[in-house]
Amino acid sequence: MYINKAILFGNLTRDPELRALPSGMNVCNFSLATNRVYKDRDGKKQEQTDFHNVVVFGRQADTVNQYLKKGSSAYVEGRIQTRSWDDKTSGEKKYRTEVVAETVQFGPRSSGTGGGGRKQDDAGATDEAPMSGGAGIEYPKDDINPDDIPF
């Protein structure tokens, strides 16, 4: 059995580009930057940034193009693929390695873009807003007593 799985969480380095294939299916391309922090041999903290090309197809391509922009954070799951083609101008063979996304989830938005984080009303009171995916779920405000759980 073989496994080809990529899992990334990072920030878009440019706005997504939406195009249509000859078949009519939409395809969206964007680049995602991920950071890695580590200590070098001398014990100094180092940071390395990697850039990943991501491709999304179909309806999800439309959604990515509509809601994500440069600087947005995104979680991507997919497979790694390398394409090759002959460059028309130089005649050289070109290669591009990219993640073909199966799932794209939007990360938390900063308070300046209107999503997630804390909301503040006119009186100055704050209210915690869901970051993602939890809309419509009411969580208890009190601690849960383990003795109340029926299993």
Automatic annotation (TrEMBL):
Keywords: DNA-binding. GO terms for molecular function: single-stranded DNA binding. InterPro entries: NA-bd_OB-fold, Primosome_PriB/ssb, ssDNA-bd. The keyword Nucleotide-binding does not apply. Pfam families: SSB. PROSITE patterns: SSB. GO terms for cellular component: nucleoid. CDD domains: SSB_OBF. Residues 104-151 are annotated as: Disordered. One of its GO terms (biological process) is DNA replication. It comes from the Bacteria. Homotetramer. This is Single-stranded DNA-binding protein.
